[in-house]
Amino acid sequence: MSAGSSQGSARRGRPGYDQELLVRRAVEVFIRRGYDATSVGDLAAELGLSKSAIYHHVPSKEHLLSLALDDALEGLEAVIADATREPRDVSAYARLRGAVRQSVLVLVDKLPSVTLLLRVRGNGEVEISALARRRRIDEQLAGLVRDAVSEGTLRNDIAPDLISRLLFGTVNSLTEWYRPDGEVDAATLADAVVELAFDGLTVPRG
Predict the structure, then answer these.
(1) Count of CB atoms within 10 A of residue 130's CB?
(2) pTM, rounded to two decimals
(3) 27 with 113: CB under 8 angstroms?
(4) Which of 98, 123, 137, 189 has its CA 20 to 30 A from that of 106?
């Protein structure tokens, strides 16, 4: 079953534990223990449920993974869709800058599921499908970088693909240290990433 599959559609929850909460808690366990190392029995013990209660909500552990990865991917895909829908009189630089900022906001909003997405390695159909979607996102972001270089608003002495990897590598690295309950809120973090990145990439004027 691939990420985004409709197999095992959402089931009616039991009082106190609906599917959304189950997925959220499962993601926490997958991040801490590792997805491959976590069985449905492990999940049941961690969540204080029986295995049958978990299967009441989802048909398999893989479906839990699919739902979690969809949550992250759909948020990131929406960022790309917004950037590419901007009117053509909006510069590629402005669209790229907006995409970087929105990517940070999505990462913060969906921090656990994005963290899990960045840890998948292609072990199984769900992960392979998720990685293919992530590559498409990366390719579209790299396209925005190339467009900005072509229009002369980003420096051209660094390969566009390298710029893209550095930019979004910086965004992805936030999963390793950012905590939503810390002193820096999402908007401040997004502004700081954008200003730091683009102050160093903008073509000097003079």
Answers:
(1) 25
(2) 0.86
(3) yes
(4) 123
88 pLDDT tier (thresholds 50, 70, 90): confident
Residue type, 42: D
In the chain, what are the domain boundaries?
A: 63-201
Q: State both tokens at 35.
A: 């997805």
Which run of H or of E encompasses 8? Answer: none
In our burial notation (b when 16+ CB lie closer than 10 A, e otherwise), range 155-189 reads eeeeebeebbbebbeebbebbeebeeeeeeebeeb
Are the C-beta atoms of 30 and 68 separated by less than 8 Å? yes
Percent of the chain with pLDDT over 90: 83
Sorted by sequence, the CB contacts under 8 Å of residue 121 that are 6+ apart come out as 127
**Architecture (CATH level 2) of domain 63-201:** Orthogonal Bundle (1.10)
Identity of the amino acid at 32: R
